[in-house]
Write a structure and sequence with these properties.
Layout: E1 3-9, E2 16-21, H1 24-32, H2 39-43, E3 47-54, H3 57-69, H4 72-82, H5 90-93
Antiparallel strand pairs: 1-2, 1-3
Amino acid sequence: MAYYVYILASKERGTLYVGVTNDLLRRVYEHKEGLAEGFTKRHGVKRLVYFETHDSIEAAIAREKHLKRWRRDWKVELIERDNPRWADLYKTLTL
């Protein structure tokens, strides 16, 4: 089974959220539809701008915790390395 670490943004260079899941399509859908109570719903954080895949939940959780400790500018650099236009990658998951 695959596990995902993902970053959502409210807009380009906006508010960021780092999460982990075993079903990226479902989880991002929940954020987009406001079904996930909490930070993302309060701040309108709905755009999937980065994700990576891991083979174990332990590795994914460790990476999530690591990214959450990063400075904001490091997260922005990580996003812009592969997604310089901050496109919503959710659309690529549903093709």
